[in-house]
C-alpha cells in the first residue's frame, strides 16, 4: 500500500512538472521503493534522470520534486544525473552499483530509464570478474560491522550476516549470471527456503519500524515482545528463534551463492587453456572437485545410507565445503540409516565430531538441508532455541556443536573419546521440552545410544553423562571440598565409575568454554580439578588391559605355514577382518601395520599376539576407497617387507606427502561467518575461488587433541616377567600404528602383545612391553620419540574462551531483560 501511494504521488507530481513520456526526464526508484518493499519510516531513494537538459530546467524540476517531500518530513535520499553520470558512479562504487541494480522506472521517459537500467546491468555483467573481489570484501566488511544475526543480542536485520542485504546480494550475482539466485532448499528443510526466510525478516523489520516509530534495523529487547505478539509469533524467545532460523537459512544461501559465483567466474588468458579441475578421491564415494566436496561418479546415494556421514566427515577433515548439489542429491535419494547404525556410520560420525571447530560448517550445511534432522530427529526441539540466560553466547543447538568442538580437543585425556564427543553433542538435548533438561536428556540419550549401536554398558554411561553433566560444576562451586563427604557424594552418585568421572570432568570444561567468554577460568578449573582428584580416591581402580585369547581359527591359520594372510568381510558394508601370520621377530608389528596402510586400509582395531614362535596379529580394517587388495598381494608385500625388500616407513612417508587430502590447517574461518577463507577475500590467486575457498590446498597434518603417552603397571602374568604397559592416545594419521611400533622396536622394546582401537579420529593403543632398560630416562626417551611421530597439535584458537561474533555481545537472538 505504501508503494502504491508513493508511486501515485510521484507520477502525479511528475506529470505536473512535465516529467512525461519522451520529455527527457524520468523518475527512477532504488532501494525499498525500487524493490517494491517500502517500509514505514524508510528513506525514499530516488534518482531524477535527464537527457542532458539545460541546468536551469533541471534545477526547476528537481526543486519542484524534492521540496514537497521535504516539507512532508519524508526521509529522502536523492540524486540528479544523466545516464552516463549514473553509469560512472555505478562503475566506481560497489555500493552504488548494488543499489542501481534494483532500479525501477516510476514516471516520465521510460526509454531513458531503460537505458540506465539496462546499461547498469550490462556493465555489471561485463565487469563482474574484476569487481567480484570487491563485492566479497564489501559483504565481509558489512558482516564485521553488523555481526551475525543468528547469534547477536540485538540483530541488525538489514546489514547483518544472514540479513536482507545478503538476499539482495544474491540477486545481484544472479543478474551477473553467476548464480541462479538463492540456493534451492527442500520445502521440508528448516526455514523452508531462503525466500520464506527473507519474507519473515522483512515482516519483522516492518513491524520493528512501526513499533519504534522510526527507521530502525536492530531488534531491541524492549520491542521484542510487542513485535512477536503483533506478528503472532509469540514472546521474545519465539521471535528470537524465528530470526535465528531465518538468518541461518540465508547465511547458508549466501555461502553457497558466493562459492558458486566464484567458481563460475569467466577465465581469461592462459587460464582458458587449463584442463577441468581433477576429481580427487577423499573417501569411498566422496571426491573433491573445484574446492568442494562432491559425490564420486559411481556413488549411488539410494544404496549407500552411510554416504551422508562420509561426506560430512570428509568436509570436516579437509575444511572444504559440501557442494549444494551434493546436499540436494543426498536429501532427495539417501535412505534412512537402519537401526542400530552400522559401525562404519558410527565411526564416520565420530570422525566428524573429532574435527574441532571444523565440524561447524558441515553440520550447519546438513542442518539447513534437513539431513542432520534425519540423523538426529531429537534435534528439532533445540534447533535455533534461544538461551534463557544472557551468559550463553549461542542458540542451544549451536552450543551443543560448540561443546563437541571443544571436547574434541580433550579426547586424549579420557579413555573413551567416542563417548566424550557423543555426550558433548547431546548433553543439552533435553532443553525446550518443559521439564528438567538433564532428566529428559538422559532418557533421550538412551534411545540415541541404542540407535547409534552402542553397547548397553556404553548407553548407560552416555545417559549418565547427560543426567549428571552439571554435577561437578555445581558441587565444586557450592559445597565444601575439604569435607570428605563431598567427594564421597560424587563418587556414590556416579556409581564409583572412574570412566564416567573423567568423562564428566572433560565435559564440564568443554560445556563451560562453549557457553561464553569468561565462564571457564582458573578458579573454576582448580575447583573442579580438586573435586575430581578427591573423588577418584573413593573409586576403585579399573582392571588393567589384557590381550584377548587367540581363537581356534587364528591358530589354524598360523598352522598353515610361516606366512599367511586371511581377509574376510566383517559386519558392515566396507569393513574387513584381516589376520596376518609371520615368524615372530623384532619390527614385525610395524611392518604388518605398514603393509595394510600402504594397501589403503585404515585399521580400526588391532590385536598383536604370539604363539609357538609366530606372531598372530588380527586387524579390523576399512578401505579408503573401493575394494581391499587381494590377500595374496598383502602376503607378498608382507614377505618382501620382512626380507627388507620394501622400506614400509619410507613408502608411508611418501604416501602421506602425496596424499590428495587438503589440509584444514590451511583454512581459516572468519568469526561469525560461514565463509571459509584460504586467502584474503576476493583473492586473485588462481587456486582460490572468489569467495576465498582454497581449490587445491596443500596436504598437512595436525591433531585437534594433543598426543598423550602414559606408563602403567602390567597385570599378571606380564608383571612377573618384567613387562610394563604403555598407553598411547593420539589423533590418527596414515600408518600411525606402524610408526609407533617402529619407534618401540628400534629402541629395543619387545612388544609382547598390543591392543589397538580407533574411535573416530582418536586412537587408543596399549602395548605390553619388555624394555631393555626400564629406567626413567628410557621411558622419557620413548615418550618423546612416540610423540614425535604423532600428528602435532593444531595452533591455538585466537580466543581462548571461545569464538565471538564480530562486534557482538555474544548472545543469541533477542536477550531477556
Q: How would you describe this structure to a colleague?
A:
The chain is α+β, with helices and mostly antiparallel strands. Among the domains are: 2-128, Beta Polymerase, domain 2 (2-Layer Sandwich), CATH 3.30.460.10; 147-264, Four Helix Bundle (Hemerythrin (Met), subunit A) (Up-down Bundle); 413-544, no CATH class; 555-653 and 703-792, 2-Layer Sandwich (Alpha-Beta Plaits). It is built from 29 helices and 17 strands. The strands form four sheets. An eight-stranded antiparallel beta sheet has the order 8-9-11-10-16-17-15-14. α11 runs parallel beside α13 (343-353) and α16 crosses α22. The protein is elongated and about 110 Å long. The two termini are 35 Å apart.
Question: Which terms summarize this structure?
Answer:
817 residues; Beta Polymerase, domain 2; Four Helix Bundle (Hemerythrin (Met), subunit A); eight-stranded antiparallel sheet; four-stranded mixed sheet; 17 strands
Strand line-up across the major sheet:
8-9-11-10-16-17-15-14
Query: Any idea what the shape is?
Result: elongated
CA(first)-CA(last) distance: 35 Å
Could you say what the CATH architecture of the domain at 555-653 and 703-792 is?
2-Layer Sandwich
Structural class: alpha+beta
**CATH homolog superfamily of the domain at 555-653 and 703-792:** ACT domain
The CATH topology of the domain at 555-653 and 703-792 is Alpha-Beta Plaits
Gyration radius over CA: 31 Å
DSSP strand count: 17
Largest sheet: 8 strands, antiparallel
GO molecular function: [protein-PII] uridylyltransferase activity; phosphoric diester hydrolase activity
Domain ACT: 577-653, 725-797
Protein name: Bifunctional uridylyltransferase/uridylyl-removing enzyme
Catalytic activity: [protein-PII]-L-tyrosine + UTP = [protein-PII]-uridylyl-L-tyrosine + diphosphate; [protein-PII]-uridylyl-L-tyrosine + H2O = [protein-PII]-L-tyrosine + UMP + H(+)
Amino acid at each position: 500500500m505504501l508503494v502504491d501511494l508513493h508511486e501515485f504521488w510521484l507520477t502525479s507530481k511528475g506529470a505536473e512538472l512535465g516529467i512525461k513520456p519522451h520529455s527527457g526526464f524520468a523518475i527512477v526508484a532504488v532501494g525499498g521503493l525500487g524493490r517494491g518493499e517500502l517500509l514505514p519510516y524508510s528513506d525514499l531513494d530516488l534518482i531524477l534522470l535527464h537527457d542532458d537538459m539545460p541546468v536551469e530546467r533541471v534545477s526547476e524540476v528537481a526543486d519542484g520534486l524534492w521540496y514537497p517531500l521535504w516539507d512532508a518530513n519524508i526521509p529522502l535520499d536523492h540524486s540528479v544525473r544523466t545516464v552516463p553520470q549514473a553509469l560512472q558512479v555505478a562503475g566506481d562504487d560497489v555500493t552504488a552499483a548494488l543499489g542501481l541494480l534494483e532500479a525501477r522506472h516510476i514516471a516520465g521517459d521510460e526509454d531513458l530509464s531503460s537505458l540506465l537500467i539496462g546499461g547498469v546491468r550490462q556493465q555489471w555483467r561485463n565487469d563482474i570478474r574484476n569487481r567480484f573481489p570487491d563485492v566479497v570484501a564489501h559483504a565481509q566488511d558489512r558482516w564485521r560491522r553488523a555481526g551475525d544475526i543468528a547469534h547477536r543480542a540485538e540483530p541488525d536485520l538489514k546489514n547483518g550476516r544472514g540479513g536482507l542485504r545478503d538476499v539482495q546480494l544474491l540477486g545481484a550475482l544472479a543478474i551477473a549470471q553467476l548464480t541462479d539466485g538463492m540456493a534451492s532448499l527442500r520445502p521440508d528443510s528448516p526455514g523452508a527456503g531462503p525466500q520464506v526466510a527473507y519474507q519473515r525478516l522483512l515482516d519483522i523489520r516492518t513491524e520493528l519500524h512501526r513499533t519504534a516509530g522510526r527507521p530502525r534495523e536492530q531488534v531491541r529487547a524492549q520491542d521484542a515482545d510487542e513485535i512477536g505478539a503483533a506478528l503472532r509469533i509469540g514472546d521474545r524467545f519465539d521471535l528470537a528463534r524465528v530470526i535465528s532460523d531465518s538468518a541461518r537459512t540465508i547465511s547458508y544461501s549466501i555461502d553457497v551463492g558466493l562459492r558458486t559465483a566464484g567458481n563460475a567466474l569467466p577465465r581469461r588468458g592462459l587460464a582458458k587453456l587449463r584442463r577441468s579441475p581433477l576429481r580427487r578421491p577423499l573417501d569411498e564415494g566422496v571426491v573433491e572437485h573445484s574446492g568442494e566436496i562432491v559425490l564420486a561418479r559411481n556413488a549411488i546415494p539410494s544404496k549407500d545410507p552411510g554416504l551422508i556421514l562420509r561426506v560430512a566427515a570428509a568436509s570436516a577433515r579437509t575444511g572444504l565445503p559440501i557442494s549444494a548439489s551434493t546436499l540436494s542429491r543426498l536429501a532427495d535419494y539417501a535412505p534412512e540409516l537402519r537401526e542400530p547404525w552400522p559401525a562404519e556410520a558410527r565411526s564416520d560420525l565420530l570422525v566428524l565430531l573429532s574435527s574441532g571447530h571444523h565440524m561447524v560448517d558441515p553440520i550447519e550445511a546438513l542442518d539447513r538441508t534437513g539431513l542432520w534432522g534425519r540423523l538426529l530427529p531429537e534435534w528439532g526441539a533445540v534447533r535455533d532455541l534461544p538461551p534463557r540466560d544472557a551468559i550463553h553466547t549461542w542458540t542451544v543447538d549451536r552450543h551443543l556443536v560448540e561443546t563437541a568442538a571443544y571436547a574434541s580437543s580433550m579426547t586424549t585425556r579420557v579413555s573413551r573419546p567416542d563417548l566424550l564427543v557423543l555426550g558433548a553433542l547431546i548433553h543439552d538435548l533435553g532443553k525446550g521440552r518443559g521439564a528438567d533438561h538433564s532428566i529428559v536428556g538422559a532418557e533421550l540419550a538412551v534411545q540415541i545410544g541404542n540407535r547409534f549401536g552402542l553397547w548397553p554398558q556404553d548407553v548407560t554411561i552416555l545417559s549418565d553423562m547427560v543426567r549428571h553433566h552439571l554435577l561437578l560444576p555445581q558441587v565444586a562451586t557450592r559445597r565444601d571440598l575439604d569435607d570428605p563427604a563431598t567427594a564421597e557424594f560424587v563418587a556414590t552418585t556416579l556409581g564409583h565409575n572412574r570412566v564416567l568421572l573423567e568423562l564428566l570432568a572433560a565435559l564440564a570444561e568443554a560445556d563451560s568454554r562453549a557457553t561464553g567468554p569468561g565462564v571457564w577460568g582458573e578458579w573454576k578449573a582448580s575447583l573442579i580439578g580438586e573435586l575430581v582428584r578427591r573423588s577418584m580416591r573413593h573409586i576403585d581402580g579399573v582392571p588393567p588391559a589384557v590381550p584377548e585369547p587367540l581363537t581356534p581359527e587364528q591358530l589354524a591359520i598360523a598352522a598353515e605355514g610361516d606366512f599367511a594372510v586371511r581377509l574376510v568381510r566383517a559386519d558392515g558394508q566396507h569393513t574387513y577382518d584381516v589376520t596376518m601370520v609371520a615368524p615372530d621377530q623384532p619390527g614385525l608389528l610395524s611392518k604388518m601395520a605398514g603393509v595394510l596402510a600402504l594397501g589403503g586400509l585404515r585399521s580400526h582395531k588391532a590385536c598383536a599376539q604370539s604363539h609357538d614362535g609366530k606372531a598372530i596379529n588380527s586387524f579390523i580394517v576399512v578401505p579408503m576407497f573401493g575394494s581391499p587388495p587381494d590377500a595374496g598381494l598383502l602376503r607378498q608385500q608382507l614377505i618382501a617387507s620382512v626380507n627388507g625388500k620394501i622400506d614400509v616407513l619410507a613408502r608411508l612417508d611418501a604416501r602421506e606427502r602425496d596424499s590428495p587430502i587438503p589440509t584444514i590447517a590451511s583454512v581459516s574461518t572468519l568469526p561469525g561467518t560461514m565463509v571459509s577463507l584460504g586467502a584474503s577475500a576476493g583473492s586473485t590467486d588462481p587456486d582460490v575461488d572468489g569467495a576465498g575457498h582454497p581449490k587445491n590446498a596443500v596436504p598437512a597434518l595436525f591433531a585437534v587433541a594433543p598426543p598423550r603417552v602414559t606408563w602403567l603397571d602390567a597385570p599378571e602374568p606380564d608383571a612377573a616377567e618384567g613387562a610394563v604397559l604403555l598407553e598411547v592416545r593420539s589423533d590418527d594419521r596414515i600408518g600411525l600404528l606402524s610408526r609407533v611400533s617402529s619407534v618401540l622396536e628400534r629402541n629395543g622394546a619387545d612388544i609382547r602383545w598390543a591392543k589397538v582401537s580407533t574411535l573416530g579420529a582418536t586412537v587408543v593403543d596399549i602395548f605390553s612391553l619388555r624394555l631393555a632398560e626400564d629406567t626413567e630416562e628410557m621411558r622419557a626417551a620413548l615418550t618423546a620419540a612416540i610423540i614425535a611421530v604423532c600428528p602435532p597439535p593444531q595452533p591455538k584458537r585466537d580466543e581462548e574462551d571461545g569464538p565471538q561474533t564480530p562486534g557482538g555481545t555474544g548472545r543469541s537472538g533477542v536477550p531477556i531483560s
